[in-house]
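Q: C-alpha coordinates for this one, please.
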Amino acid sequence: MKRSLFLFLSILLFWACQSEVPAEDEVKIKEIATAIPEGGEPNLFVSEAGNIYLSWVAYLNDTTNILQYARLEDGVWNSPTEIARGTDWFVNWADFPSLAVFREKEETLAAHWLQKSANGTYDYDVRVSISKDAGENWSPSFVPHTDGISAEHGFVTLLPMQNDRLLATWLDGRNTKSPAGEGHDDHKQEHNGAMTLRTAEFDVNGLLFEEAELDDRICDCCQTDAALTSLGPVVVYRDRSEREIRDIFIVRKLDGEWTSPKPVSSDNWRIAGCPVNGPAVAARNQQLAVAWFTGAKEENRVKVALSEDAGASFTPAFTIDDGNPIGRVDIVFTAKGEALISWIEQVAGGGEIRVAKVDQTGKQGKSITLMSTGISRQSGFPILETHEGSYILAWTSGEEKTTVRTIQFEL
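A: Here is the predicted structure, written as C-alpha coordinates:
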Protein backbone atom coordinates (compact mmCIF):
# COMPACT_ATOMS: atom_id res chain seq x y z
CA MET A 1 0.00 0.00 0.00
CA LYS A 2 2.78 2.43 0.93
CA ARG A 3 4.60 1.58 -2.28
CA SER A 4 1.47 2.24 -4.37
CA LEU A 5 0.89 5.52 -2.61
CA PHE A 6 4.51 6.54 -3.15
CA LEU A 7 4.26 5.66 -6.85
CA PHE A 8 1.05 7.68 -7.20
CA LEU A 9 2.57 10.71 -5.53
CA SER A 10 5.73 10.40 -7.63
CA ILE A 11 3.72 10.36 -10.86
CA LEU A 12 1.64 13.30 -9.69
CA LEU A 13 4.76 15.29 -8.79
CA PHE A 14 6.39 14.46 -12.13
CA TRP A 15 3.32 15.66 -14.04
CA ALA A 16 3.19 18.89 -12.06
CA CYS A 17 6.88 19.63 -12.66
CA GLN A 18 6.60 18.90 -16.36
CA SER A 19 3.58 21.09 -16.98
CA GLU A 20 4.33 23.83 -14.43
CA VAL A 21 0.59 24.52 -14.28
CA PRO A 22 -0.46 26.33 -11.10
CA ALA A 23 -3.41 25.12 -9.07
CA GLU A 24 -6.09 27.65 -10.05
CA ASP A 25 -9.80 26.93 -9.77
CA GLU A 26 -10.65 29.53 -12.41
CA VAL A 27 -8.59 28.21 -15.29
CA LYS A 28 -8.07 24.91 -17.08
CA ILE A 29 -4.61 24.65 -18.64
CA LYS A 30 -3.20 22.10 -21.08
CA GLU A 31 0.31 22.30 -22.49
CA ILE A 32 0.65 21.68 -26.24
CA ALA A 33 4.07 20.26 -27.06
CA THR A 34 6.18 21.95 -29.74
CA ALA A 35 8.83 20.19 -31.83
CA ILE A 36 11.42 22.94 -31.33
CA PRO A 37 14.82 21.74 -30.02
CA GLU A 38 16.14 25.30 -29.70
CA GLY A 39 14.53 28.55 -30.74
CA GLY A 40 12.57 31.62 -29.72
CA GLU A 41 10.70 34.74 -30.91
CA PRO A 42 7.29 32.99 -31.11
CA ASN A 43 4.24 34.57 -32.69
CA LEU A 44 0.61 33.47 -33.18
CA PHE A 45 -1.91 34.21 -35.90
CA VAL A 46 -5.59 33.23 -36.29
CA SER A 47 -6.89 33.20 -39.87
CA GLU A 48 -10.34 34.25 -41.06
CA ALA A 49 -11.24 30.55 -41.27
CA GLY A 50 -10.34 30.09 -37.60
CA ASN A 51 -7.06 28.22 -38.04
CA ILE A 52 -4.27 29.15 -35.63
CA TYR A 53 -0.62 29.26 -36.68
CA LEU A 54 2.52 29.34 -34.53
CA SER A 55 5.70 30.84 -36.02
CA TRP A 56 9.18 31.02 -34.48
CA VAL A 57 12.89 31.29 -35.21
CA ALA A 58 14.80 28.02 -34.91
CA TYR A 59 18.48 28.33 -34.05
CA LEU A 60 20.21 25.83 -36.30
CA ASN A 61 23.73 26.80 -35.22
CA ASP A 62 25.79 29.86 -34.33
CA THR A 63 25.40 31.35 -37.81
CA THR A 64 22.12 30.07 -39.29
CA ASN A 65 18.53 30.87 -38.31
CA ILE A 66 15.36 29.35 -39.75
CA LEU A 67 11.88 30.86 -39.75
CA GLN A 68 9.36 28.04 -39.28
CA TYR A 69 5.67 27.64 -38.57
CA ALA A 70 3.13 25.00 -37.61
CA ARG A 71 -0.68 24.86 -37.59
CA LEU A 72 -2.77 23.48 -34.76
CA GLU A 73 -4.69 20.40 -35.93
CA ASP A 74 -6.84 18.34 -33.53
CA GLY A 75 -5.12 19.91 -30.56
CA VAL A 76 -1.58 19.17 -31.81
CA TRP A 77 0.92 21.32 -33.69
CA ASN A 78 1.65 19.67 -37.04
CA SER A 79 5.17 19.18 -38.34
CA PRO A 80 7.22 22.38 -38.65
CA THR A 81 7.37 23.95 -42.10
CA GLU A 82 10.35 26.03 -43.16
CA ILE A 83 9.68 29.47 -44.60
CA ALA A 84 13.20 30.82 -44.99
CA ARG A 85 16.68 30.59 -43.52
CA GLY A 86 19.69 32.86 -43.44
CA THR A 87 23.11 33.59 -42.04
CA ASP A 88 22.71 37.39 -42.21
CA TRP A 89 19.52 37.92 -40.24
CA PHE A 90 18.95 40.43 -37.47
CA VAL A 91 17.50 38.28 -34.67
CA ASN A 92 16.30 40.20 -31.65
CA TRP A 93 14.42 39.10 -28.52
CA ALA A 94 11.88 41.94 -28.83
CA ASP A 95 11.56 42.28 -32.62
CA PHE A 96 10.15 38.97 -33.75
CA PRO A 97 9.04 37.68 -37.18
CA SER A 98 5.40 37.04 -38.03
CA LEU A 99 3.13 35.04 -40.29
CA ALA A 100 -0.28 36.11 -41.62
CA VAL A 101 -2.96 34.65 -43.90
CA PHE A 102 -4.85 36.65 -46.51
CA ARG A 103 -8.48 37.10 -45.47
CA GLU A 104 -10.19 35.50 -48.47
CA LYS A 105 -7.39 33.07 -49.40
CA GLU A 106 -6.62 30.54 -46.67
CA GLU A 107 -3.97 28.93 -48.86
CA THR A 108 -2.09 32.22 -49.32
CA LEU A 109 0.32 33.10 -46.52
CA ALA A 110 2.85 35.86 -45.94
CA ALA A 111 5.73 35.97 -43.49
CA HIS A 112 8.32 38.54 -42.54
CA TRP A 113 11.77 38.55 -40.97
CA LEU A 114 14.66 41.03 -40.61
CA GLN A 115 17.78 40.79 -42.74
CA LYS A 116 21.01 42.77 -42.66
CA SER A 117 21.38 45.36 -45.42
CA ALA A 118 24.88 46.71 -44.63
CA ASN A 119 27.71 46.35 -42.13
CA GLY A 120 26.24 48.69 -39.51
CA THR A 121 24.96 46.94 -36.39
CA TYR A 122 21.45 48.25 -36.92
CA ASP A 123 21.31 48.33 -40.70
CA TYR A 124 18.62 45.84 -41.67
CA ASP A 125 15.55 45.54 -43.90
CA VAL A 126 12.14 44.00 -43.50
CA ARG A 127 11.88 40.97 -45.77
CA VAL A 128 8.51 39.49 -46.82
CA SER A 129 7.85 36.20 -48.59
CA ILE A 130 4.51 34.85 -49.87
CA SER A 131 3.24 31.31 -50.34
CA LYS A 132 0.23 30.63 -52.58
CA ASP A 133 0.07 26.89 -51.88
CA ALA A 134 -0.47 26.69 -48.10
CA GLY A 135 3.22 26.94 -47.26
CA GLU A 136 4.65 24.36 -49.64
CA ASN A 137 6.63 26.92 -51.63
CA TRP A 138 7.65 30.48 -50.82
CA SER A 139 8.41 33.35 -53.18
CA PRO A 140 11.71 35.23 -53.28
CA SER A 141 11.54 37.85 -50.55
CA PHE A 142 10.82 41.53 -51.18
CA VAL A 143 11.18 44.71 -49.12
CA PRO A 144 7.97 46.66 -48.31
CA HIS A 145 9.83 49.95 -47.76
CA THR A 146 11.17 51.71 -50.85
CA ASP A 147 13.72 54.10 -49.33
CA GLY A 148 16.74 51.98 -50.22
CA ILE A 149 18.64 53.35 -47.23
CA SER A 150 20.75 51.09 -45.02
CA ALA A 151 19.09 51.83 -41.68
CA GLU A 152 16.82 50.25 -39.08
CA HIS A 153 13.49 48.84 -40.30
CA GLY A 154 11.61 46.58 -37.93
CA PHE A 155 8.94 45.96 -35.31
CA VAL A 156 6.54 44.90 -38.05
CA THR A 157 2.82 44.16 -37.82
CA LEU A 158 1.04 42.35 -40.68
CA LEU A 159 -2.75 42.86 -40.85
CA PRO A 160 -5.02 41.16 -43.42
CA MET A 161 -7.34 43.59 -45.19
CA GLN A 162 -10.60 43.01 -47.04
CA ASN A 163 -9.24 43.82 -50.50
CA ASP A 164 -6.96 40.78 -50.98
CA ARG A 165 -4.09 42.73 -49.47
CA LEU A 166 -2.05 42.75 -46.29
CA LEU A 167 -1.26 45.97 -44.47
CA ALA A 168 2.24 46.19 -43.05
CA THR A 169 3.34 48.76 -40.52
CA TRP A 170 6.87 49.15 -39.20
CA LEU A 171 9.40 51.39 -37.47
CA ASP A 172 11.45 53.07 -40.16
CA GLY A 173 14.88 54.58 -39.53
CA ARG A 174 15.55 56.16 -42.93
CA ASN A 175 15.61 59.64 -41.37
CA THR A 176 18.13 58.57 -38.75
CA LYS A 177 20.72 58.67 -41.53
CA SER A 178 19.74 62.22 -42.52
CA PRO A 179 21.53 65.37 -41.30
CA ALA A 180 18.59 66.77 -39.30
CA GLY A 181 17.33 65.96 -35.83
CA GLU A 182 18.66 64.29 -32.72
CA GLY A 183 20.53 61.07 -32.15
CA HIS A 184 19.10 57.65 -31.50
CA ASP A 185 18.42 57.14 -27.82
CA ASP A 186 18.90 53.44 -27.21
CA HIS A 187 21.30 51.65 -29.50
CA LYS A 188 24.32 53.91 -28.89
CA GLN A 189 24.92 54.28 -32.60
CA GLU A 190 25.58 57.51 -34.50
CA HIS A 191 22.19 58.60 -35.82
CA ASN A 192 20.70 61.97 -36.70
CA GLY A 193 16.97 62.16 -37.49
CA ALA A 194 14.01 60.59 -35.71
CA MET A 195 12.51 57.13 -36.07
CA THR A 196 9.25 57.19 -38.05
CA LEU A 197 6.17 54.98 -38.30
CA ARG A 198 5.35 53.89 -41.84
CA THR A 199 2.92 51.62 -43.62
CA ALA A 200 2.26 50.01 -46.99
CA GLU A 201 -0.09 47.41 -48.40
CA PHE A 202 0.87 44.51 -50.64
CA ASP A 203 -1.10 41.94 -52.62
CA VAL A 204 -0.65 38.21 -53.18
CA ASN A 205 1.94 38.95 -55.87
CA GLY A 206 4.00 41.22 -53.64
CA LEU A 207 3.00 44.43 -55.41
CA LEU A 208 3.13 47.47 -53.12
CA PHE A 209 0.39 50.05 -52.62
CA GLU A 210 -0.25 53.13 -50.50
CA GLU A 211 3.09 53.46 -48.75
CA ALA A 212 2.77 56.30 -46.25
CA GLU A 213 4.35 57.92 -43.23
CA LEU A 214 2.01 57.76 -40.22
CA ASP A 215 4.11 59.59 -37.62
CA ASP A 216 7.38 61.45 -38.10
CA ARG A 217 8.78 60.96 -34.57
CA ILE A 218 8.23 57.83 -32.47
CA CYS A 219 9.98 55.67 -29.90
CA ASP A 220 12.86 53.75 -31.44
CA CYS A 221 12.36 50.14 -30.39
CA CYS A 222 8.84 49.42 -29.09
CA GLN A 223 6.54 46.99 -30.88
CA THR A 224 3.68 48.16 -33.07
CA ASP A 225 0.28 46.51 -33.27
CA ALA A 226 -2.72 46.84 -35.59
CA ALA A 227 -6.32 45.70 -35.75
CA LEU A 228 -9.20 45.91 -38.23
CA THR A 229 -12.37 47.58 -36.97
CA SER A 230 -15.64 47.78 -38.89
CA LEU A 231 -14.62 51.32 -39.89
CA GLY A 232 -11.10 50.43 -41.01
CA PRO A 233 -7.62 49.59 -39.69
CA VAL A 234 -5.98 51.17 -36.65
CA VAL A 235 -2.32 51.14 -35.62
CA VAL A 236 -1.05 51.64 -32.06
CA TYR A 237 2.54 52.42 -31.06
CA ARG A 238 4.69 54.34 -28.58
CA ASP A 239 5.19 57.95 -29.57
CA ARG A 240 8.18 60.16 -28.67
CA SER A 241 7.74 63.89 -28.20
CA GLU A 242 10.54 66.45 -28.30
CA ARG A 243 10.30 66.51 -24.49
CA GLU A 244 10.88 62.71 -24.42
CA ILE A 245 7.29 61.91 -23.42
CA ARG A 246 6.69 58.34 -24.59
CA ASP A 247 2.98 57.56 -24.41
CA ILE A 248 0.82 55.24 -26.51
CA PHE A 249 -0.69 56.77 -29.65
CA ILE A 250 -3.16 55.64 -32.29
CA VAL A 251 -3.71 56.37 -35.98
CA ARG A 252 -6.82 55.24 -37.89
CA LYS A 253 -7.62 54.87 -41.57
CA LEU A 254 -11.04 56.33 -42.34
CA ASP A 255 -12.44 56.54 -45.87
CA GLY A 256 -9.02 55.80 -47.30
CA GLU A 257 -7.15 58.47 -45.32
CA TRP A 258 -4.97 58.13 -42.24
CA THR A 259 -5.85 60.35 -39.30
CA SER A 260 -3.37 62.47 -37.39
CA PRO A 261 -1.74 60.69 -34.43
CA LYS A 262 -3.40 61.12 -31.04
CA PRO A 263 -2.78 59.64 -27.58
CA VAL A 264 -4.79 56.69 -26.33
CA SER A 265 -4.12 57.97 -22.81
CA SER A 266 -1.84 60.70 -21.51
CA ASP A 267 0.42 59.02 -18.95
CA ASN A 268 3.12 61.67 -19.51
CA TRP A 269 5.89 59.11 -19.11
CA ARG A 270 9.11 61.00 -19.60
CA ILE A 271 12.05 58.70 -20.22
CA ALA A 272 15.32 59.37 -22.02
CA GLY A 273 15.55 55.89 -23.54
CA CYS A 274 13.36 53.37 -25.27
CA PRO A 275 11.62 51.01 -22.78
CA VAL A 276 11.30 48.24 -25.43
CA ASN A 277 7.70 47.64 -24.35
CA GLY A 278 5.08 48.25 -27.03
CA PRO A 279 1.28 48.26 -26.87
CA ALA A 280 -1.26 45.66 -28.01
CA VAL A 281 -4.67 46.19 -29.58
CA ALA A 282 -7.75 44.06 -30.23
CA ALA A 283 -10.85 44.91 -32.28
CA ARG A 284 -14.40 43.61 -32.44
CA ASN A 285 -16.56 45.61 -34.89
CA GLN A 286 -16.29 49.14 -33.42
CA GLN A 287 -15.10 47.86 -30.04
CA LEU A 288 -11.41 48.48 -29.48
CA ALA A 289 -9.17 47.61 -26.54
CA VAL A 290 -5.57 48.81 -26.10
CA ALA A 291 -3.17 47.54 -23.43
CA TRP A 292 0.27 48.94 -22.60
CA PHE A 293 3.05 49.29 -20.04
CA THR A 294 4.05 52.61 -18.51
CA GLY A 295 6.58 53.77 -15.95
CA ALA A 296 5.10 57.23 -15.47
CA LYS A 297 5.54 58.85 -12.04
CA GLU A 298 8.26 56.29 -11.21
CA GLU A 299 5.58 53.59 -10.94
CA ASN A 300 5.41 50.58 -13.25
CA ARG A 301 1.89 49.85 -14.43
CA VAL A 302 0.00 47.83 -17.05
CA LYS A 303 -3.04 49.73 -18.28
CA VAL A 304 -5.94 49.22 -20.65
CA ALA A 305 -8.33 51.67 -22.31
CA LEU A 306 -11.49 50.76 -24.21
CA SER A 307 -13.34 52.34 -27.12
CA GLU A 308 -16.83 51.85 -28.53
CA ASP A 309 -16.27 54.03 -31.61
CA ALA A 310 -13.31 52.34 -33.33
CA GLY A 311 -10.73 54.42 -31.49
CA ALA A 312 -12.21 57.89 -31.92
CA SER A 313 -12.43 58.13 -28.12
CA PHE A 314 -11.37 56.01 -25.18
CA THR A 315 -12.40 55.38 -21.61
CA PRO A 316 -10.06 56.54 -18.87
CA ALA A 317 -7.23 54.01 -18.51
CA PHE A 318 -7.70 51.13 -16.04
CA THR A 319 -4.73 49.70 -14.14
CA ILE A 320 -4.85 45.90 -14.25
CA ASP A 321 -1.49 44.65 -12.92
CA ASP A 322 -0.70 43.37 -9.42
CA GLY A 323 1.82 46.00 -8.41
CA ASN A 324 5.12 44.88 -9.90
CA PRO A 325 4.77 44.38 -13.68
CA ILE A 326 7.51 44.42 -16.29
CA GLY A 327 4.95 44.70 -19.10
CA ARG A 328 5.25 42.70 -22.36
CA VAL A 329 1.50 42.83 -22.87
CA ASP A 330 -0.97 41.26 -25.24
CA ILE A 331 -4.76 41.52 -25.53
CA VAL A 332 -7.75 39.74 -27.08
CA PHE A 333 -11.53 39.97 -26.83
CA THR A 334 -13.51 37.21 -25.13
CA ALA A 335 -16.71 35.81 -26.62
CA LYS A 336 -18.64 38.01 -24.17
CA GLY A 337 -16.93 41.18 -25.37
CA GLU A 338 -14.57 41.55 -22.43
CA ALA A 339 -10.91 42.38 -22.95
CA LEU A 340 -8.45 39.73 -21.75
CA ILE A 341 -4.98 41.11 -21.10
CA SER A 342 -1.76 39.17 -20.54
CA TRP A 343 1.46 40.53 -19.03
CA ILE A 344 4.53 39.49 -17.03
CA GLU A 345 4.48 40.24 -13.31
CA GLN A 346 7.81 40.17 -11.47
CA VAL A 347 7.93 37.90 -8.42
CA ALA A 348 10.66 36.54 -6.18
CA GLY A 349 12.99 34.45 -8.33
CA GLY A 350 11.59 35.47 -11.71
CA GLY A 351 8.28 36.29 -13.31
CA GLU A 352 4.77 35.00 -13.90
CA ILE A 353 2.58 35.28 -16.98
CA ARG A 354 -0.76 36.56 -15.75
CA VAL A 355 -4.11 37.40 -17.34
CA ALA A 356 -7.07 39.51 -16.24
CA LYS A 357 -10.42 40.45 -17.76
CA VAL A 358 -11.67 44.00 -18.14
CA ASP A 359 -15.05 45.39 -19.13
CA GLN A 360 -16.22 48.98 -19.37
CA THR A 361 -16.30 49.28 -15.58
CA GLY A 362 -12.67 48.25 -15.02
CA LYS A 363 -10.92 45.11 -13.85
CA GLN A 364 -13.27 42.19 -13.21
CA GLY A 365 -12.18 39.60 -10.68
CA LYS A 366 -8.64 38.79 -9.66
CA SER A 367 -5.73 38.19 -12.00
CA ILE A 368 -4.82 34.61 -12.82
CA THR A 369 -1.30 33.20 -13.01
CA LEU A 370 -0.86 30.96 -16.05
CA MET A 371 2.83 30.04 -16.00
CA SER A 372 6.16 30.85 -14.43
CA THR A 373 8.69 32.56 -16.69
CA GLY A 374 11.93 34.49 -16.62
CA ILE A 375 12.22 38.25 -16.83
CA SER A 376 15.43 38.51 -18.81
CA ARG A 377 15.52 39.38 -22.50
CA GLN A 378 15.76 35.69 -23.38
CA SER A 379 12.23 35.23 -22.03
CA GLY A 380 10.85 37.41 -24.81
CA PHE A 381 7.24 38.49 -25.17
CA PRO A 382 4.33 36.11 -24.47
CA ILE A 383 1.75 36.09 -27.28
CA LEU A 384 -1.98 35.54 -26.66
CA GLU A 385 -4.70 34.51 -29.12
CA THR A 386 -8.25 33.08 -29.08
CA HIS A 387 -9.04 29.74 -30.67
CA GLU A 388 -12.35 27.81 -30.77
CA GLY A 389 -13.69 29.10 -27.49
CA SER A 390 -10.37 28.85 -25.63
CA TYR A 391 -7.07 30.73 -25.58
CA ILE A 392 -3.58 29.89 -26.80
CA LEU A 393 -0.47 31.37 -25.19
CA ALA A 394 3.04 31.09 -26.68
CA TRP A 395 6.25 32.17 -24.98
CA THR A 396 10.00 31.58 -24.90
CA SER A 397 11.15 29.27 -22.12
CA GLY A 398 14.67 28.84 -20.77
CA GLU A 399 17.62 31.12 -20.28
CA GLU A 400 20.86 29.72 -21.77
CA LYS A 401 19.13 27.28 -24.14
CA THR A 402 15.68 28.47 -25.13
CA THR A 403 12.69 26.82 -26.71
CA VAL A 404 9.11 27.80 -27.51
CA ARG A 405 6.25 26.54 -25.35
CA THR A 406 2.51 26.83 -25.79
CA ILE A 407 -0.54 26.21 -23.63
CA GLN A 408 -4.26 26.12 -24.27
CA PHE A 409 -6.48 27.40 -21.48
CA GLU A 410 -10.10 28.13 -20.66
CA LEU A 411 -11.51 30.65 -18.23
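A few notes: Residues 55 and 109 are 12 Å apart (CA to CA). Helices lie at 2-19.
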